[in-house]
Write a structure and sequence with these properties.
It is built from 18 helices and 24 strands. By secondary structure, it is of the alpha/beta class. The strands form 7 sheets. Strands 1, 2, 3, 5, 13, 14 and 15 form a 7-stranded mixed sheet that branches. Strands 18-19-17-16-22-23-24 form a 7-stranded mixed sheet. Strand 1 and strand 2 form a beta hairpin. Helix 10 crosses helix 16, helix 13 crosses helix 14 and helix 14 crosses helix 15.
Length: 508
């Protein structure tokens, strides 16, 4: 336990599934935490949204529950917020939401994607923003909002990413850090300023976007009403936070090239630090995206598996829920290769290196011998192969295409079979951070920087005490999975793509 006079740091993680408030000591050890569900609405296929006021109330609830577990809340000196990266709140002149928060994974904006591709061009968008044109980004959502909700859009004066909105409600200061700004498709990645020319071409006012700042910038103390509602001291400082995956990378020290951070949640992120943005347009054509690290002066590139944990949850729901650990144990007894069953984990989008919004998931190789545990193992094998494919294709664009180490964080790391499959498919050890709240820790470190608890990022990382487990590849299975990956898995998408596109056309 921390000494009674040690400062405490709050890290908030407003995620797709849960909103978490975790209170840490300066060495990164959790002192108290609370989690509440993220209420999400699905009004029709491919649509999803959140209500801003509900997210705020749930955040306050999580904070209140966590703070109540601390003996001396007056030791809490700071906080920062991490959140999903492609969802934002439109606000009017008095700070009230003018419309719901379109979820990061919502697909309603495909017409706007098509318009941007025709009018501005995918390569030019990638050159300016570092992003592959996809429906999830803020620019697409803003265009949809303007075209489909013109009255609400006309009243909108500010577009705040979710973490920025929560920070604004905490301290009253509207600002955005570069890591979240770089997920809007409205930031000039090389100049680190809002892309005024691009926004003008798109017919959007640049003034919608908030003041840009470095992650960990002090914004101000919590508002009196926030302190009263949560038990936080009125002196607690709020700092700018960042994109959830990038905050997680900070927490495990993935800040320099050569390291890979594999963040495993509802979606999966495969994150590689950069010293400068990359310019090859083919990288954008394959669906890879770049952005600004929460560490000043650093960048990153990543590929996403959009339905990693979501694939597992989907299958469990089909099975009627049940004991997760028992399902894993049963899947461990299934032979490698899952009796010939293969799974393509494209339940929402095709993942890089294929930029294909019409992609679909699939099981192939089914037989009467297949049991629920066989399907479950096939899903995990498919997810492991998919992440390997994403990274293998991405490394070709890097100046130094080698991996020195792989770090894994997130809720799915608790699945030991999945981690063993990852290490074996990659044929490389995977360093698993046993603390599952790395994203909250990254946010807490940024809050500590803003409050002066740490002089700089190296000092902060040097104070951390991390609990890590190294998962080694299973040597007797490496060759089997190498053959499976090369001869089977890499062919799945290409073989099934024509069928999936035909299905899409028939349904639309």
């Amino acid at each position: 336990m921390p000494a009674s006079n040690d400062p405490l740091l709050v890290g908030l993680d407003v995620g797709t599934t849960n909103i978490k408030a975790v209170i840490f000591d300066p060495t990164g050890q959790p002192v108290a935490q609370a989690s509440v569900s993220t209420p999400t609405y699905y009004p029709q296929p491919t649509w999803a949204y959140y209500k801003a006021e509900e997210l705020w109330r749930r955040t306050i609830e999580a904070l209140r529950l966590a703070v109540a577990k601390v003996d001396r809340p007056d030791r809490i000196v700071s906080m920062a917020v991490a959140s999903m990266g492609e969802a934002a709140v439109p606000l009017d002149a008095v700070g009230q939401p003018t419309y719901d928060i379109i979820a990061w994974f919502d697909q309603r904006t495909q017409p706007q994607v098509d318009w941007l591709a025709r009018t501005i061009g995918k390569d030019r968008l990638f050159d300016i923003t570092g992003l592959s044109l996809q429906p999830i980004f803020g620019l697409c959502k803003l265009l949809w909002f303007k075209e489909n909700q013109p009255d609400a859009f006309a009243r909108t004066v500010r577009w705040l990413n979710v973490a920025d909105y929560i920070a604004y409600r905490l301290c009253g200061v509207p600002a955005t850090d570069y890591s979240l700004a770089s997920r809007t498709m409205a930031l000039n990645l090389r100049r680190l300023e809002w892309a005024a020319d691009l926004l003008q071409e798109a017919g959007l006012p640049a003034g919608l976007f908030a003041l840009l700042c470095v992650s960990g910038t002090r914004l101000g103390p919590v508002l009196p009403e926030v302190a009263a509602a949560t038990g936080l001291p009125a002196t607690a400082q709020v700092a700018s936070g960042g994109h959830d995956h990038v905050c997680g990378a900070l927490a495990v020290g993935v800040t320099e090239p050569g390291a890979l951070m594999n963040s495993l949640g509802t979606a999966e992120n495969l994150f590689l630090p950069l010293t400068h943005p990359l310019t090859d347009p083919e990288m954008g054509r394959q669906g890879y995206t770049q952005g600004v690290h929460v560490v000043a002066g650093h960048y990153y590139v990543f590929g996403a598996s959009y339905t990693s944990g979501a694939c597992v949850d989907w299958l469990r729901q089909i099975f009627g829920g049940g004991d997760y650990s028992a399902l894993i144990a049963a899947a461990e007894r299934v032979p490698p290769g899952s009796l010939g069953v293969c799974f393509l984990p494209h339940l929402r989008l095709a993942n890089p290196p294929y930029d294909d919004p019409q992609g679909r998931g699939a099981f192939i190789g089914l037989s009467t011998d297949v049991k629920p545990e066989t399907l479950f193992r096939a899903v995990l094998e498919g997810l492991a192969c998919e992440s390997h494919y994403i990274v293998q294709s991405l490394l070709k664009f890097l100046d130094t295409p080698t991996l020195n180490r792989i770090h894994a964080i997130g809720g799915s790391t608790r699945n030991q079979l999945f981690m063993q499959l990852k290490a074996t498919v990659f044929n490389q050890p995977v360093i698993v951070t046993t603390m599952t709240e790395a994203t909250s820790l990254g946010a807490a470190l940024l809050g500590g920087l803003g409050a002066g608890v740490y002089a700089d990022v190296p000092t902060a990382l040097g104070q951390l005490r991390r609990d890590e487990v190294v998962v080694e590849p299973l040597a007797d299975q490496v060759s089997l999975y190498e053959t499976y990956f090369r001869q089977v898995y890499q062919q799945l998408y290409l073989t099934l793509r024509p069928l999936h596109h035909t299905i899409y056309q028939l349904q639309n």
